[in-house]
Amino acid sequence: ALTSKIENMREERLRAFFEELASGTRELTEEAIGREEFLYAYFATLKAAMNTRRKEKIQLFARLLSNAARTGAEGTDTYEEFLNILDDLSLRELHVLLILNQFEETYPLTPQVKDGDKAENDLRRANRFWDDFEKTVETRMGIHPAQLRAMLTRLNRTVLYETMVGT
Questions:
Q1: Whole-structure pTM over 0.85, yes or no?
Q2: What's the Cα-to-Cα distance from 147 to each of 23, 96, 144, rounded to whole Å?
């Protein structure tokens, strides 16, 4: 029974991975597939995809591979770094980063000097939206602001988020 269940889970993960690869904007050619760099990236990405249980994350792995193959970046250190970062992140962390990105796009840094004030720095900009950001994360993700601070501290390890220090 256990073997059967494991095989079913494996098949579902493979199906999700290959369906997402097939839905990509670029068809993988035999030439691309035959390159050592692609094969290395393929096996590394497939291994990561098979070791996660969330379909959404499996699809993200497939998109990462597809985009790297499209740009010819699958054999680079950058690809390995992105693969490792994606593998290390939870879906909740990814969603928090997406929400933060939306706020940063909505509240761009204003560099112009007004009435003798200095140009806005990253901390001032963040102060303009941070309370709303925390409320949005709590509403959408159910993450209390105290938990969010701990999560953001953990996200420093990915270099996708950097805690601001100082004034």
A1: no
A2: 36, 12, 5
